[in-house]
Amino acid sequence: MSTADIFAILQGAVTTASLSGVAILLGLPLGLLLALTRWANIPIVAPLVTVYVSILRATPLVTLLLLLFFALPNIGVPIGAISAAVLALTMNTSAFNCEVWRAGLMSFPKDQYEAAQSVGMQAGQRLRRIVLPQVARACLPGLVNEMSLLIKVTPVLAVVGVVDITRAAVRIGAETYEPLPPFFVALAIYLPIVYAIVCLQRLTERRLARAEAE
Amino acid sequence: MRDFLVVWSERALLLKGLGNTIVLSLAATIAALVLGALGALVLMTTKSAYRLPFAGFVDAMRCVPFLLFAYIVYYGLPSLGLNLDNWSAGLAALTIYNTAYMAEILRGAWVAQPADPIDAGYAFGFTGLGHFRRIVLPPLLLSAAPVVGNQIIQIVKDSAFLTVIALPELTHAASSIQSRHYIPFAAFITAVLLYWTLCLVIEAGVAAIGRVAEARR
Asked: Are A71 and B71 inside 8 Å of each other by CB?
């Protein structure tokens, strides 16, 4: 295994990080939007969202990715490997984020919402100034946990040809007939990334527990 | 619609894939639960010579993507002289990986258990493994059931990753139907619906266990 090989795996790391980053940035507000439609119980849309979330939570990312990558061009929507990867990751993570957001919204104290109503705040104002700041803080540990889960499913993107960390390592292993060294380089990249997110999650949990104790 | 008829004509392949997914997930669930229960015991012991290495293993597994771990087991072990076919490698990877998660889940539930019945068990003369199996474990499994259920769904979904080491599970079957007839939408939507059904069955099972737990309280 040469320096160039290690460099190739690092390049895969850039791909993994940017795809995960985009999916996280898209999935957080999208999950909130889905949760809000269920929370507000919007007719027709809310039950559809419920079914959508239930199906997506049960679908393995590989299956979803293969479906998008092969079926979308078939019905006339051209899609590349990268866009299919981002779309699959975003759909997947937004479904899980929706459940986290929804749990937060459900446990939001009703008296505060009514108090905001009684001082004459509009619906948008109530949401922006009263509900969201508190719910976001309560949801943070769950949302961060979902980020670590997201990174752990990214190696699947290789099935449509995205060269991420794992794919780069597999390729080098096949060329050198020594699969273990590149895998350990890959491990050495994943471990600190995911561990940092897990630590961030514990930190947010502790801060939340302290805030609630006060 | 015609595409779905083609999928129907290939139902034998799809059902075999579904059967393999179920067998694989079930075997991995049972093995990971048994090993994870023993693992929880190790995580709760005061002897750090046992606890620390296993806690390190659990933390490591929680940071490794399952697919990378499966690759290491499948491609890596032969270079250590251990040759596994894709079935044993896939099952081993699923079991070892989820043992760590089950151990951590059961440990979390154990910490939240009231101490009195556990102490009462010692007072009645239960010790060691017998105490764990008869006193600690039953309420533990009942209270941890929802989280364990989520992890079983995770196992079902992780088993789909094993398509990359050519294990003939559900996603692999859908993949071969799609490449044979070029009907991606029908093939993968059918697979998605079958996964969904599996998860709904697991959730119903967890809800039933929850009712038993509620009745026992």
From this structure: no
Q: What is the rounded CA–CA span in Å between residue A3 and residue A1? A: 7
Burial class of A66 by CB neighbour count within 10 A (0 to 12, 13 to 18, 19+): buried
A152 to chain B: which residues are within 8 Å by CB?
Answer: 64-66
* Domain interval for residue B192: 2-216
Query: Are the beta carbons of A194 and B153 separated by less than 8 Å?
Result: no
Closest by CA to B65, choosing from A170, A83, A174, is A170
The answer to whether ipTM exceeds 0.85 is: yes
If one counts every other C-beta atom within 10 angstroms of the C-beta of residue A153, the result is 23
Domains identified in chain B, total number: 1
User: Residue B112's domain is classified under what CATH number?
Assistant: 1.10.3720.10
A67/B63 CB distance under 8 A: no
Percentage above 90 pLDDT, chain A: 59
Choose the closest CB to B174 out of A63, A159, A170: A63
A173, containing H or E segment: helix A165-176
pLDDT, one tens digit per residue, over A130-158 is 888 889 888 998 999 899 999 999 999 98
Cβ distance B192 to A67 less than 8 Å, yes or no, reads yes
Number of Cβ within a 10 Å radius of residue B79? 13
Chain B: give the shortest CA distance to residue A75, in Å: 9
Burial (CB < 10 A; 0-12, 13-18, 19+), residue B81, is exposed
Q: Structurally, what CATH architecture does the domain formed by A3-213 represent? A: Orthogonal Bundle (1.10)
